Amino acid sequence: MPPGNEKLNSFKETLERIEVPPHPLVEALEFMRGFVPNATNIGESGDRNDLYFLIDTMNEAIKEAVPGSVCAAGCSRCCYFPIALFNISPLEWRTIEVFLDGMEEEGRERILGNFRRDFKKKTKQLSLIQWIVDRPISFVPKLGGLPCPFLEKGNCAIYPARPLYCRTFGYYTVVSGMIGNPRFYSCGVQGNALEAQLRKAGPQVGLPSANPLIYQLDLLNRLDFPKWTGWRLLLNLFGFYPDYPVILKERWLQKYEIGRR
Ligand code: SF4
Ligand code: SF4
Prior knowledge:
Helix content is 51%, strand content 5%. With 261 residues, the chain is mainly alpha-helical. The protein has one domain. The chain has a two-stranded antiparallel ribbon with strand order 1-6. Strand 2 and strand 3 (155-156) form a beta hairpin. The longest helix has 15 residues, at 3-17. It starts with a helix and ends with a helix. The relative contact order is 0.16. The structure holds iron/sulfur cluster (2 copies). One iron/sulfur cluster binds next to loops.
């Protein structure tokens, strides 16, 4: 064996003997891959069958892996327009509804009072926005820079029940469309901070994708929701509508508020 090869082989053997501890994020990815497709509920069981529990566990690992993240308690910029106006699925709303029902009267009335104050005169605009975001190509108009109706003094009043979008925003990547490269699922400020952190952490470390979480939420909603019929079903064949209604959270809250009168 030529002397060069001997050296190379001994170097390989040394490398094999060194145990490299897995990066926390790599461990978290393993964790997610294993359990997410088996999640059966959101926010109910508080164990490995609970998609929200899995996301929260993932988030802890990601925060540990990227400690220089600028997402922190008290930052609520993404709770303002335009991100504050987004659709949520029936299952996500059900979790919020259960949370609202379980709140003390005073806290719940405060949320509903804020909603009435900010959105009561904007029901037509909300309907229009709902119509726009229901289209294949969405364009969301401005609605006076209003924050999410659940934002109270810079904090989320329904934090334990917040929807998937709010749980994942800031720490994941996402691929949208048929073909696409993963991009940061966050505001630009957080995206830049993550990019700088990951560059330091090394090329093998990447943020997990939010797509499997979104797919699982979609699957759970499909299983839960009775099939749509009529013209919706027809449009669904052309891919215009999902199998269940996804509605602006402000519209869900509007229905809830009407139901409590
Ligand atoms: S994504 Fe951006 S705006 Fe939202 S909490 Fe993180 S840093 Fe703040
Ligand atoms: S539900 Fe909570 S975290 Fe999500 S946009 Fe509203 S206030 Fe912000």
